[in-house]
Amino acid sequence: MLNYNQIPFVKLKKNLTASYGDYLHPLGAGASGSVSLFRRFEDRQLVAIKHFNPPPGQSQIERKEYERQIKLEYHVGALLNGLDGISQSIDLIYVAPSATWHLVTEYSPRNLAAERGRLSKSDTLEIFYQTLNATRSIHQRSLVYGDAKVENILLTHQGDVKLIDFGSATLAKCRVESPRDDVNVVPGDFGTPAYMPPEVFNVLEYDRQKADVWAMGILLHAMFLGHPPWDIASVSDGRFRYFMGWETKGAGERRCLVPYSKIEYATSSVGRVELLGQFPRSVRALAWHLLEPDPARRSSLDALFVATA
């Protein structure tokens, strides 16, 4: 069982700019907080600092749970320090006067989301394979990334991949139900809906590493075509229904082949073949395995690396 009280953090009696480093400029913002560029006083190193914004009106219990999720994000990131393709987690900071939490990470100057459209096919493939290998390394530590997407891939000046944002990362065998003191870790919200596999929407418990594998297939689509293939891998999305063979399309119309409430995993369909035909020929076989709808048939990343070696 993970003891959250033993996860180290730096407690500051003054704000960041007085105690930790010089604020330079904002880097971005998301649902869970904003990110800024700082230069540390200690060694003049450039670092990215994520500032967590707790939801308003939290109860004491909700606040405690929120802080545990922040500590888990730092803890998992620190466990991955030193792996190729992973942005280093440096410090977790609690600023006492404002009662706020801040996560200090390695700074990478380039953003795949901003550069994707200007990259060559060979550079895009290199970045994808680096991302795939970094995610495989995460799995080999019995962990799960949980939020692979274009926006979470940064690049160094040399073009090397650095994965960021471990707010959805957790142990591979973590239970899904609400955390209590006897639960080993606090699971975060798993990923971004467009990158989630179909089983996430059908069952409570699922193989989270297999969910990462599916997300790699969606990522490959987004990197080459500029967007995920659908909004959600569920019967509620027409593009996914066509991919699954639950629906056919003709001249300006669609026809349902099976009741939307009947969940069956197709091994092949016209929609699946059409989608995979959009990928570069060199990765179509890989994309086929990554976007296997049936989690029981979907390969692990280790198995895929052995098969394609």
Describe this structure in words.
By secondary structure, this protein is α+β, with helices and mostly antiparallel strands. 31% of the residues lie in helices and 20% in strands. It is built from nine helices and 13 strands. The protein has helices at 16-19, 60-79, 112-115, 121-140, 208-225, 238-244, 270-276, 284-290, 301-308, and strands spanning 10-12, 21-29, 33-40, 46-52, 89-95, 100-106, 110-111, 143-144, 153-155, 161-163, 170-171, 247-250, 253-256. A six-stranded mixed beta sheet has the order 1-5-6-4-3-2. The protein has a three-stranded antiparallel beta sheet with strand order 7-9-10. The radius of gyration is 21 Å and the shape is globular. The two termini are 37 Å apart. Residues 177-188 and 256-263 have low confidence and may be disordered. It comes from Endocarpon pusillum. One of its GO terms (cellular component) is cytoplasm. This is Protein kinase domain-containing protein. Belongs to the protein kinase superfamily. CAMK Ser/Thr protein kinase family. NIM1 subfamily. ATP binds at residue 50.
